[in-house]
Structure formats: C-alpha cells, structure tokens
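Project outcomes to date are best conveyed with an example. Our students and postdoctoral researchers have been running inverse folding experiments weekly, and each run begins with a structure described purely in tokens. The record below, which covers 198 residues, was selected by the lab manager from last quarter's runs and is presented without edits.
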C-alpha cells in the first residue's frame, strides 16, 4: 500500500533512514544505522539480503535497517519485555500467529529465532504506515495503564505488542510480518534469506 494524502507515512520513510532507540529505563540512545554493510542501490532493488551487525544493540533498544525498501526492526528485548509477552494473549487478535505472517522458525511464543531478538517488518498491516515505538509500560506510555510496551500506529490507532502481535478490534487485521532471516553468528543477522537446509 502506498502512502497517500490521507495517511501520513512520512515517519515510515524517516524510520528507514534512522535508527530508533528507546528503553524500558527511558534512556534514549541512538543506534547507528548499519550503512557500511548495506548493499548497493541496485542490489537492494533486486531484493538482496542485508547483513546486520547487532553487537552494539543493548537490551531495551531497537534499530532499523532497510530491506527491499521496507523498514526492518531489530529489537533486543529485555527479560522483563519477554516475561510480559505471555500476560495479554486475551487482548490480541491472533496471539499464536496462526495466520501466516512469518517463517516456521519464528512460529513460537516470541515470534523469533532467539527469544531476546525480534526481527519484524515495521509496516502496519492496515494501510502500510510505520508504527511508533512505545516501549514505556503502564500509564507512562500514554496508551493505557496495562500497556506492556509495544508499538502504536499513529494514523488509525492500531497497537502491536513487543512480538509484533496486533491487538483486537483495531484497524490492522494481522500481526507484523517477520521477514526471512538467520544468524550468521551471535553478532550478525542476514535479513532476506533463509538458512540453507533450514
Ligand atoms: S496504517 Fe492505519 S492503523 Fe496502521
């Protein structure tokens, strides 16, 4: 879905170009954009995989890289973030991700290969805007007192948790998509490709 006058997708473009960091402790830190490892423009338009160094991504922080013109979020979840994921299944539209928005290796309670890292395409499944990070929990989030941390899509109010699962009764029908990816090492992820033989 393209951005039009009715839908403010400016932030989506901004997120592609910048890295956003936030934390449960409320300390903002900027995580560098992984520019040096990005493929050429021609390779990107052909959908080449993107190699990402996550070694500097601290617990509670998130970074954004571009793959096939889309923002891909990588979130280093804390233990508290992970513990909160199991507490609000009844409020989610598809808590077990039974609809297909992810490879089989991310079909688990964390929607990820390694519990601490979520890799998700940061595009709302409603009209294609990029949701905003809302990692603060409870009333401080400005969402509601029970908010466990997640994302808010600003144009029509869809909300997603820290596994990219959409809340019930929101415009967005589906959870955020998980792109194909695998770990080259503890510090590097390749986004856009499945592990051979996996
Ligand atoms: S694009 Fe409308 S709620 Fe996300």
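After processing, the design step wrote out the following sequence:
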């Amino acid at each position: 879905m393209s951005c039009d006058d009715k839908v403010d997708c400016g932030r989506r473009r901004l997120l592609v170009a910048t890295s956003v960091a936030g934390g449960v402790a409320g300390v903002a830190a900027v995580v560098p954009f992984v520019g040096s490892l990005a493929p050429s423009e021609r390779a990107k338009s052909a959908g080449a995989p993107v190699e990402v160094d996550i070694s500097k991504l601290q617990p509670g922080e998130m970074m954004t890289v571009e793959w096939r013109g889309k923002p891909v979020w990588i979130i280093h979840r804390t233990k508290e973030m992970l513990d909160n994921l199991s507490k609000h299944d009844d409020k989610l539209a598809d808590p077990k991700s039974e609809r297909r928005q992810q490879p089989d290796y991310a079909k688990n309670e964390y929607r990820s290969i390694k519990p601490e890292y979520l890799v998700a395409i940061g595009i709302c499944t409603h009209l294609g805007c990029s949701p905003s990070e809302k990692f603060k929990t409870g009333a401080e989030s400005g969402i509601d007192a029970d908010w466990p941390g997640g994302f808010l899509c600003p144009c029509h109010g869809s909300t997603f948790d820290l596994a990219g699962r959409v809340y019930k009764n929101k415009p967005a029908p589906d959870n955020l998509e998980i792109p194909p990816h695998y770990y080259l090492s503890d510090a590097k992820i390749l986004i856009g490709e499945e592990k051979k033989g996996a």
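Confidence is low (pLDDT under 50) at residues 1-6, 9-37. The radius of gyration is 16 Å. The training component of this project remains on track.
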